[in-house]
Design brief:
- By secondary structure, the protein is an alpha/beta fold.
- The protein folds into two domains: 202 residues, Alanine racemase (TIM Barrel), CATH 3.20.20; 127 residues, Lyase, Ornithine Decarboxylase, Chain A, domain 1 (Beta Barrel).
- The protein is 28% helix and 23% strand.
- The strands form three sheets. A ten-stranded mixed beta sheet has the order 1-20-2-11-19-16-17-18-15-12. It has an eight-stranded parallel β-barrel with strand order 3-4-5-6-7-8-9-10, surrounded by six helices.
- Helix 1 packs across helix 3 and helix 6 runs parallel beside helix 7.
- The two termini are 25 Å apart.
- 50% of the residues are buried.
- Pathway: Amino-acid biosynthesis; D-alanine biosynthesis; D-alanine from L-alanine: step 1/1.
- Its cofactor is pyridoxal 5'-phosphate.
- This is Alanine racemase.
- Keywords: Isomerase, Pyridoxal phosphate.
- It comes from Kribbella antiqua.
Length: 386
């Protein structure tokens, strides 16, 4: 998409996100092995591959055996086709009036959750019928037809299919609480989804694919797998369960390391206030390092006065408020200089902070930390497996 890419031959950047494609392939293979009863696997690459780079991630996923690629919005799905991906692609989030005809012509599977969406799909058909997955709202109360409106959606879809305008390829839904595998909401949604399949089949629907499982369910709820699973965040080596069940215990490898180089290092006296609002004051003479990254690059401002980094092999803490373009770290009495490398997060194998550590500091989830990283940070792709 729009994210800058580095091939490793340029001069050093002020910052970069290093993405290991071998880790992506490893995670896809691991998730594929967890799918029950030979279920196919759809790798979700929405939001520029959760900030990792949609096209490189999709290619690595295909290499590792991903049967499907999932993209939230049309521009993502079409960009995958433009990049040469010829395999099955599923796209599920559209609004009235979007150019569905382009996606239909490109053979992209689309979602429908209301009769008006069937009408829009029919209007977009030219040379080939639209491939459609009908969505039931099984309890998330987001997209999908509520059970009371499910029969009307089925009837509209069957009329369009009988007219040769669409093919009903799937029935699907999305879980609300798979990151809490023991939540009773999972059992309730599974029951609603199963009933929706039975209702559809009673009307004569013969959908090839039934899919409900996201990352958490792929890893912990095998009864939700049906014949297609859709892991997202786990593809990138991040646990949907956070610290409760870390990536390493799931056999996943975090793929991204965020690095920067100090723009300045200086000594300040005791009592010196740091950054906007002077919310942190040096308790004694201290060395401060200026990191040229801020909330304009995607660092969460809520992680001010607490986010960890690694500098010179030591864990240190960001102090003061994170600004738009920069933040400050307390190096205490460490020796450092402008241009030295600092690691904000990575897999954690060398003692560096992880994405989960940053999520804890910001009071959010690991999904948000990587996805919000902006286009000012170049992505550099490595392949530790080759």
């Amino acid at each position: 998409m729009s994210t800058l890419q580095s091939l490793g031959s340029e001069r050093p950047h002020r910052a970069e996100a290093v993405v290991d494609l071998a880790a992506i392939r490893h995670n896809v293979a691991t998730l594929r092995a967890r799918a029950e009863n030979g279920a196919q696997l759809m790798t979700i690459v929405k939001a520029d591959g959760y900030g990792h780079g949609m096209i490189p991630v999709a290619r690595a996923a295909r290499e590792a055996g991903a049967d499907w690629i999932g993209a939230a919005v049309l521009e993502e799905a079409l960009a995958l086709r433009d990049a040469g991906d010829t395999g099955p692609i599923f796209c599920w989030l559209t609004t009235p009036g979007e150019p569905l005809e382009d996606a239909i012509a490109a053979g992209i599977d689309l979602s429908a959750a209301a009769p008006w969406e069937i009408d829009e799909l029919v209007a977009g058909v030219t040379d080939r019928p639209a491939r459609v997955h009908l969505k039931i709202d099984s309890g998330l109360s987001r997209g999908g037809a509520v059970p009371e409106e499910w029969p009307a959606l089925i009837r509209a879809a069957l009329r369009a299919q009988q007219a040769g305008r669409i093919e009903i390829k799937g029935i699907w839904s999305h879980l609300a609480s798979s990151d809490e595998p023991k939540s009773p909401a999972n059992e309730a949604q599974l029951a609603t989804f199963t009933e929706a399949i039975e209702v559809a089949e009673s009307f004569g629907v013969d959908a090839e694919f039934k899919h409900l499982a996201n990352s958490g369910a792929t890893l912990a709820l095998p009864e939700t797998h049906f014949n297609l699973v859709r892991p997202g965040v786990a593809t990138y080596g991040l646990s949907p369960f956070g610290h409760a069940l870390p990536s390493a215990e799931l056999g996943l490898r975090p793929a991204m390391t965020l690095k920067a180089r100090y723009a300045m290092v200086k000594r300040v006296p005791a009592g010196a206030g740091v950054s906007y609002g002077l919310t942190w004051t040096a308790p004694r003479p201290s060395t401060l390092g200026l990191i040229p990254l801020g909330y304009g690059d995607g660092l969460p401002r809520h992680a001010s006065n607490g986010a960890p980094i690694q500098s010179g092999g030591e864990r240190r803490t960001i102090v003061g408020r994170i600004c738009m373009d920069q933040c400050v770290v307390n190096l205490e009495d460490d020796q450092a200089a402008a241009g030295d490398e600092v690691v904000l997060f990575g897999p954690g194998a060398d003692g560096e902070p992880t994405v989960d550590d940053w999520a804890d500091a910001a009071g959010t989830i690991n999904y948000e930390i990587v996805t919000r990283l902006g286009s000012r940070i170049p992505r550099r792709y490595i392949d530790s497996g080759r």
